[in-house]
Amino acid sequence: MLTREEDIDAHALARQGWTISAIARHLGRDRKTIRAYLAGNRTPGARARTTPDPFAPYAEYCRARLAEDPHLWATTLYDEVTDLGYPGAYQTFTRQLRQRQLRPVCQDCRPTAGRAVAVIEHPPGEETQWDWVELPDPPAAWGAGANAHLLVGALAHSGAWRGLLCESEDQAHLIAGIDHITRALGGVTKVWRFDRMATVCHPPTGKVTATFAAVAKHYGVSVAICPPRRGNRKGVVEKAVHSAAQRVWRTLPDEATVESAQAALDRWCTTRGDARARTTAEGRTTVAALAAAESLGALPPVPFPAVTTVERKVSAQALVAYRGNSYSVAPELAHATVTVIARLGEPHLDIATSSGAVIARHRAAAPGAGAMVRDHGHVTALNTEAMKAATSAVPHRSKVRIPPGPDALAAAAVLRGTAAPASTTTSVHGAEEGAVVIDLSRYAAAANGRNTLT
C-alpha cells in the first residue's frame, strides 16, 4: 500500500519519464504495486482486501430494499439479510451501509443543512420574526424547573432583536413579551411571523386562533405562519436565539436573579448586538443604523389587556415576590400558595388564594426595583401576630447537667434485665415479698444488747 505522498511522487516521476522499475527502486516498492497505482487500479491509503468481502453479495439487496423504503430500520434489514445467509455482525453490517451510502436521502424529511436555500428579501419595516427558546439549567433560586423561557423578537431587515424572560410560554405571557419587545424595538412592522405555536394558530392547519386574532387587530399587524418544518424561513430570529444562548445565557453566573439576567440581556442587545457591522449597497453600517432607518408603525397607547397569572409562595413575613418586588398579604397566609394576577396596561395587580378569591390589591412597582409594597392593615396585623408569639420566658440553657431521673433509671434496669422481680406474696409484717422492710424492733434489741454488761 502506497501512502498519498508516495503516490504523488510515483505519478510525478512517471510524468518525468521514469520507468516503473526505476520508480519502484526509488520508492522501495514492488513493480506490480507501482504499476497498479499508476493505472488507477488502487487507491492510496487503502489496503487491498486479501479475502472476499462478505457483504458484497448482499449489497444489491440492501440497495433495493432501502430504495423502496428509505426509513427501514437497520435492525429490520439486518434480520432479513441474516435469514438470507449474511454471516457478519450487526456493527459490520451498519458500517457497510454507511460506507457504501446505500440508504438514499428522503427529500421530504431532509433537514435544511445541505439544501439549496433561496435568498428572501426583507424590505425595511416589513417583518418581525418571533420564537421561543428554552434555556437549560437556570439558577436554582429561580424555581423555574429544568428550563427558563425566553421570547425573542427580531426585525427581519436590520437584524435588531430584543428578548424577554417569561414565567411560561402560555398566550398571556406571549402577549406580554410581544408588547415589551415591540416597545423596546421602537414600533411594529407590517407582519409578524411565527412558527406553528399553539398559542398563535392551530398547528395542523396554520389558521390563526380567535384569541390571537384580537391581539393582531389591536396592534394593527398581519400574522404569517411558517410552513411546517421550515426553520430557515425565519432564519433571522433563529440566529438571534443562538446569540442569546451563547453570548448571554452561557456565561450567566449562578447567583444571578431573573431581573439581573434580563438586564444583562438588554445591555448586550443595546451595546454589542446593535453594534454589529452590516454591508449594504451604500457601504458599511451597523445594525442600529439600519434599525433606525426602518419605518416602523406606531404602537397602540396601551398594551393588549392580557391577564397573566403566576403562582407564588408567601414568605414568613407575609410577602409575595413578583418581578423583583415584594407585596404584602395578611399574616394568616404565611407559607401558603397564592396566585398573582396582573393585567397588561393596568397599574395594579391582584393577589388571590388558590380558590380564586382576591385578598389583596397593590400598585405595581417597576420590575426589578426591589420595592416592598405593604398595605397598612397588613403591617398592623403582622405586628400584632408577632407580638402574640413573643414570650418573656427564660429559654432553656444548653449547657446544663441533667442526669437520668428515677423513671429513666427504672426503664434502663428493665432493658438490662437487672430489675427486681415483682411478687404478690406478703411477709409477716404485711409488706409484699421482695420489698425493703424496716423493722424498728430489731434496732431496739441491738441497742439493748450493747448496753448490757457481760
TrEMBL record:
Record domain Integrase catalytic: where: 120-294
Gene3D superfamilies noted in UniProt: Homeodomain-like, Ribonuclease H-like superfamily/Ribonuclease H
NCBIfam families per record: transpos_IS21
UniProt similarity note: Belongs to the transposase IS21/IS408/IS1162 family.
Protein name: IS21 family transposase
Native organism: Kocuria oceani
Taxonomic placement: Bacteria, Bacillati, Actinomycetota, Actinomycetes, Micrococcales
